[in-house]
Every structure is written in structure tokens, then in C-alpha cells.
Design brief:
Layout (H helix, E strand, L loop, with lengths): L14 E3 L5 E3 L14 E9 L18 E8 L7 E8 L6 E5 L10 H9 L3 E5 L22 H6 L13 H27 L5 E7 L1 H12 L6 E5 L5 H15 L11 H13 L39 H12 L1 E2 L6 E3 L16 H5 L8 H7 L21 H12 L7 H5 L3 E7 L8 H12 L15 H6 L3 E6 L17 H10 L5 E7 L8 E8 L3 E5 L11 E5 L15
Parallel strand pairs: 6-7, 6-8, 8-9, 9-12, 12-13
Antiparallel strand pairs: 1-2, 3-4, 4-5, 5-7, 10-11, 14-15, 16-17
């Protein structure tokens, strides 16, 4: 660990005059209030030394080291209002910069990521992505990215949830890619001003929207970061949101199409009973290791005899679940627009942001970006194009024409990122009910395919030269039983940042990452199980001896080729 001796030596040696002429002690931190940076207004520079920080409207974050909190507003265009925060450890800085992402439409700060960053010794930065430049109600503004209020996540497109960024193309660009790049540039300059030296290496870590931010950085700004951690990346954003639209339309086609919350555990138990243990895991698992090996038809749960819901499914509910697994499909030509969630993702927990969460909303989750194209009328069911009648054959083009180039991080040309030694580590939960897990595999497969002349889908093994080449700079880890970014019945807690740092700085490429499942997902309650996460396309197989709850008794082995649902070429990868 690099210990900074540059901060603190001058504390108390400088003085300034506060309002009214009262002397006030200055510090290297408070001196940053006058820092002049391009298109930047420093709005605050404060020493936080009590070990606790209380985010607006949230519970206190405790156990923090002393740090300098810098807040700023960036205005790269006349219509931009990008807020950022930089947290700078005042002792034990490790010499590294960490950019962090958030969730949904952001509009606030992911303070937990800032806290995690400085607790690990990084100078960390976060951004509201330029979508939260004025106050909004508690219903529509989350406090912590994808771990906040579910309604805030669904509708958190800023101060006006009905129209969002309609008529503000520069703000849409800020959300799509510019805010994180500007945060990175200004954040590094703030680090240099505070420590009197540049960060020796730079990393980015984000999940969901943060994963989209991560891939945007690798594609558009390949020299911003040395290592990038992209979890459950919402990289194919316009088509991903069409998946949420089709899910809402399917469940609201009639009252009989609704799935009752109590039915989701019934469906999940049936999936597990049919498929567990056939995919690399063990028969006692409550999750699937690779759901692509599962051929589950919800019709097996159709009510027979005198059985009634929630113990079984009506024919209409069978239709709903079949469509759930299929994803967004063009009804005219059958093209896949966005894959569906994998078997094993069924849950009645609304915090998982799955079907039960989505169908209870008055309109589709995360549909803000469609307002950016169609205006306020998208929320009025008498309008020509609205959330209830969106046509998955005719209405895709106007959305993609306006937003695809700005929001979708689908380029597979990472040659410049690779060329300067950049490393990309991706991960995704197999039980993600919000952002289909196949999407990350599709992107990784496309990286392998890019420039190597292989037809899609790519099927390969350890001897494949294209795979070996791709794994010199990009690796994917699938997480059995994890929901969207966290939670779920499987081992869902792991450190992927340290392996990324070791890959960048020591050239030690990660082969496995140990994941832990805590009792009730509470570390204080003890460890329930551990399991290795394997570098894709390998899977964890039980060795046949020893405790099945111990990662030590599993080995990562090559997997047989599996079918991976892919979007049609015009909507992929």
C-alpha cells in the first residue's frame, strides 16, 4: 500500500477569512474550493474526519477513513449540468484512481461505491450522469443507484419523470457517455491537485448502468482507465428497455395474464427440481450453475383437476411465463430484439427487479428513454405511440435512429484499449431477472468473434486461438444464483476489483474468483457456502468428495457448447 504523506503536513498552517471576518483554518482539502478546472464549478471541498457520512435522505455510512469530499458541477455544453463527487483518502491512499458507476437513470450519487472505494484506499469519483440537476420527489429519486427505492430506479430519469430528457439531446449524450468521461478527466485533475501527484493507475467499476458506463469507457475513451470492471452491463440499452416494455405488455394483456407473487417461488422450485445438478452444480443447490442446460416448459405447472393458483398456473399464466423466457420478439418476423431472463431467475422479491416488481407498476419499468423520443405522449394511452401499444415491429426504428448511437455500447473493437494494456473484467448473475444474463455472454462472444472470421454464435474451448487472444485483455465470469448485481440464492458476494488490479499491475490474469453466500445474505450471520466463479466458458464442477458448501471441493472445467439466445444481428450483439 502506498501511504500518502503529502496530505496533512500543512493542516492548520494556512488561514482564510470566513464571512464576517472570522478566521477559519484551511486545509489541503478546503483549498480545493478555489481550484480552477475547465467547464467546472467546485461547489464544495470539505474534510470528513468523524468516520461517518450521511447521504441525503439515507442512513449513515460508518467506518470511513478520514477523507476529503469534493463536489462539483460540470458544464461541457450549455445544456449540461453534470454533478460529480470525488472522495480522497487523507491517509493511506494507495496511489490509484477509481471511477464508479450507478444504476437506472442515476440522477443521484452511488455513495456506497464511493465509500467502498476509499475503504480500499482508492481516490474515488461518482457522477449523477447529468440527469438529476434539480430536486425531485422521494418517489422518483433514489439515493443509492440500483440499491435504492425500486420506484426511484424505474422512473428516476430526473426532475420531470413524465418527460425526462425529451428535447435535450446534449443531456442524453451526457447520460449515454459524456458524464463519466468528464467525471474521469476532472476527477484525475482533482486527485493531482490534492496529492500533488498523478494517480499511478486508474480503474473503473460499475454494475447495470455502471456496466454500460464501463463498456462505453473501453470503447469511446480507451485511455481513461487501465482496468475496467463491468457487471451486468446494460450495454444494449435501447433493446434492453424494449424487453421491459414487452414484459409489462404481456402481463397486462388481460387480468388473467398476471402472475401472482406467490406463484414465483412455485415456478422457481419446479425449475430447480427439473434442472439442478445437470449443469455443473450439485443436486442440493438452490440455484442453477448454467441455466442454458435447462429446458423448462412452464406448462408442466398448468392446473390439473381441482388444483388452483397459486399452487399451479392457468393456461394464460403459462403463456405469460413462456413469453417471459423468450424476451422481446418482433411479432412479424420472429426476430429476437432482446433475450429473456434465464430459468432460475424467478423470484417474488421485488428488490430483485424482476417480473413481480415490473407487473405491479402503473407503466413499464425504466421506460423513461422512450419519453426522450416520443415526448410526454408516451405516457398517455390515447397517443399514437405509448407504453401500452408500442409496436415491436414498427416502433423500434425511431427509437434506435435517435438513441442507439448515443446509448448503446455495442462496439466490439477494443483494439485501442487493448493496445495500451487495458484489461476488461466482466461479470453477470445467472439469475438476473432484470437484465438477461445471456447478454454479457453475447458481448464477450462478439469480442472473440471480432476480427477472427468465426460465424456467430461462437463456440469454442481452451484451445481456440481467438478465445486465448481475447482472454489476454477481456475475461467474463458468470455468477450462479445471483440476481441483478447482488443478492439471490447463490454465492453473491465477491471481490472482482482486486483480481483486476493484480491483472493490470502484476500481469496475473484471473482464472477463478471465490464467491460467498452469507446466511440470510448477512455477513455477521456467518458463511453459508463458497463456490468458485470460473472464467468463461468454464464452469464449476464438484470433485465428488468433501463438503459441497466449500469452494475447495470444486474445479473449473471446460463446458460443453451451449445454445445462447442472441438478438437478431441488427439488434445485437
Amino acid at each position: 500500500m502506498h501511504r500518502s504523506t503529502l496530505v496533512g503536513a500543512a493542516w492548520g498552517l494556512l488561514a482564510s477569512v470566513a464571512i464576517g471576518g472570522t478566521p477559519a483554518l484551511a486545509s489541503p482539502c478546503t483549498n480545493l474550493a478555489t481550484l480552477a478546472l475547465e467547464h467546472t464549478t467546485i461547489t464544495g471541498a470539505t474534510d470528513v474526519t468523524g468516520g461517518t457520512f450521511t447521504p441525503p435522505g439515507s442512513a449513515p455510512i460508518t467506518g470511513l477513513p478520514p477523507f476529503c469530499r469534493v463536489t462539483a458541477t460540470l458544464t461541457p455544453t450549455a445544456d449540461s449540468q453534470i454533478r460529480i463527487e470525488a472522495w480522497l483518502p487523507e491517509t493511506n491512499w494507495n496511489g490509484r484512481f477509481l471511477g464508479t458507476g450507478g444504476g437506472g437513470y442515476q440522477g443521484t450519487f452511488t455513495y456506497s461505491e464511493l465509500a467502498n472505494g476509499i475503504n480500499a484506499g482508492f481516490a474515488a469519483a461518482n457522477s449523477d450522469l447529468g440527469t438529476g440537476t434539480s430536486g425531485c420527489s422521494p418517489l422518483f429519486c433514489g439515493d443509492d443507484g440500483n440499491k435504492g427505492n425500486p420506484l426511484a430506479i424505474a422512473f428516476g430519469e430526473g426532475p420531470n419523470p413524465s418527460t425526462g430528457l425529451f428535447g435535450h439531446p446534449e443531456k442524453i449524450k451526457d447520460f449515454g457517455y459524456r458524464a463519466i468521461h468528464q467525471m474521469t478527466l476532472r476527477g484525475k485533475e482533482i486527485v493531482k491537485a490534492f496529492y500533488s501527484q498523478h494517480a499511478k493507475t486508474s480503474y473503473f467499476a460499475g454494475c447495470s448502468t455502471g456496466g454500460q458506463n464501463a463498456l462505453m469507457e473501453a470503447q469511446r475513451f480507451p485511455h481513461d482507465y487501465d482496468g475496467i470492471l463491468a457487471g451486468a452491463a446494460a450495454f444494449n440499452r435501447t433493446h434492453l428497455h424494449m424487453g421491459a416494455l414487452t414484459l409489462w405488455q404481456d402481463t397486462h394483456a388481460s387480468a388473467t395474464r398476471f402472475i401472482l407473487p406467490a406463484q414465483m417461488p412455485v415456478i422457481n422450485k419446479a425449475v430447480i427440481a427439473q434442472c439442478v445438478g445437470r449443469d455443473g452444480g450439485v443436486k442440493t443447490d438452490q440455484f442453477l450453475t448454467d441455466p442454458r442446460d435447462c429446458r423448462f416448459d412452464p406448462k408442466v405447472l398448468q392446473c390439473q383437476g381441482g388444483a388452483v393458483p397459486p399452487a399451479c398456473l392457468t393456461p394464460d399464466q403459462v403463456t405469460t411465463m413462456r413469453k417471459y423466457y423468450l424476451g422481446a420478439i418482433d411479432p412479424v418476423n420472429g426476430d429476437v430484439i432482446n433475450p429473456g431472463p434465464a430459468p432460475g431467475s424467478e423470484t417474488d422479491n421485488v428488490l430483485a427487479l424482476g417480473l413481480v416488481f415490473a407487473e405491479q407498476l402503473p407503466e413499464p419499468a425504466f421506460d423513461g428513454l422512450f419519453y426522450w423520443v416520443f415526448g410526454a405522449g408516451f405516457g398517455i394511452q390515447s397517443s399514437p405511440v405509448n407504453f401500452a401499444n408500442f409496436d415491436f415491429h414498427h416502433d423500434i426504428k425511431p427509437v434506435d435512429d435517435q438513441l442507439e448511437a448515443v446509448l448503446n455500447a455495442t462496439s466490439t473493437d477494443l483494439s485501442e484499449f487493448r493496445g495500451h494494456g487495458g484489461k476488461l473484467l466482466m461479470y453477470h448473475g445467472w439469475a438476473d431477472p432484470l437484465l438477461p444474463s445471456q447478454s454479457s455472454i453475447n458481448y464477450f462472444n462478439a469480442l472473440v468473434h471480432n476480427g477472427h472470421g468465426f460465424p456467430m454464435p461462437v463456440r469454442f474451448d481452451d484451445g481456440d486461438p481467438a478465445l486465448r487472444h481475447t482472454q489476454t485483455y477481456a475475461r467474463l465470469f458468470m455468477v450462479p444464483g445471483m440476481w441483478h448485481c447482488s443478492g439471490g440464492p447463490g454465492p453473491n458476494t465477491f471481490d472482482a476489483l482486486t483480481p483486476l488490479v493484480n491483472w493490470v499491475e502484476k500481469d496475473v490474469a484471473p482464472e477463478t474468483i471465490t464467491a460467498t453466500k452469507f446466511v440470510n445474505d448477512t455477513p455477521a450471520s456467518g458463511v453459508q457456502m463458497t463456490r468458485p466463479l470460473c472464467v468463461y466458458p468454464k464452469v464449476a464442477r464438484y470433485n465428488g468428495r468433501g463438503d459441497t458448501n466449500s469452494a475447495a471441493n470444486f474445479t473449473c472445467v471446460p463446458d460443453e457448447p451451449d445454445f445462447n439466445q442472441m438478438p437478431a444481428p441488427q439488434y445485437g450483439p
